[in-house]
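chain below, 221 aa
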Amino acid sequence: ISICRDLPNIEVITFSVNGISDLEPLHQCQNLSELYLRRNNITSLDELFYLKTLPRLRVLWLAENPCCGPDPHRYRMTVLRNLPSLQRLDNQAVTEEELSQALVDGVEITAPPARRSLESAWSESTASSAAGSATERESELSCSLQDTNKTQEEFDMKRVPRDKYSSFSPQETDCSCKKTNNVLNAILLLMKELDAEGLEIIQQTVARRLQAFQKKELQEE
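prediction:
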C-alpha cells in the first residue's frame, strides 16, 4: 500500500484480502473515489482519520476487518460520521437518515491511531496467516474466480476453468490464481476506458505476445 504515496491522482483502489493494517499512505490520494479494503487486518477505526482528507471518496468497502467489531450499527455509524460524503459503504447505499443518525450514534475520530511496534504487528500478522484454514483459502479462490469470470462475461470471453490450477497445492493454487485473476481483472477493466486506437494497440501487443509464447513452446518441444 505504500506505493499509493506516489499515486496522488489514482481514483480507484482495490486492496481486498491483502493483510493491510495501515491507511496512512492513502491520505494524499485526493482524487480517490472508490476504495475496496474488504478482509484485511485493519484493527482500529482510527485509521479513518487518513480518509477524512479525501474529498472525492464516495465508495468504501471495509467489511470483514477486525475494526468492524461486534456491533455492526456502531461500526457503520462511526464510519458515516467521519466520512459523510460516502454514497456506498460495504456495498450498501448510504441514506440521508443514516447520515443524520450517525451524528448521534457514531464516534468522531479526531486523531490518527497509535502505532504498535513493527515487530509486534508482524508477529500477529504472521500468526493470523498461519491460522488460516485450507477451507478459507478455497473459498477465497472461488470468490476470485467468480469475480474474474463475471468481468470476462462482459467481454464475451471464455471463462476461467476452475481445474486450471488443480495440479497445485491449495496454497499454491490460492496465490497463483489470485495473482492471475487480479492482473486479468485490472486489464479488462482498464480496457473499458480505451478508444478504438488504444484497443488496436492492445490487440497488436497481445498478438506479438502470443507469437512469442508459441515460438517458445515449439523450441521446448
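Residues 2-105 form a domain with the Leucine-rich repeat, LRR (right-handed beta-alpha superhelix) fold (CATH 3.80.10.10). The beta strands are 12-14, 34-36, 59-61, 88-89, 92-93.
thats it, cya
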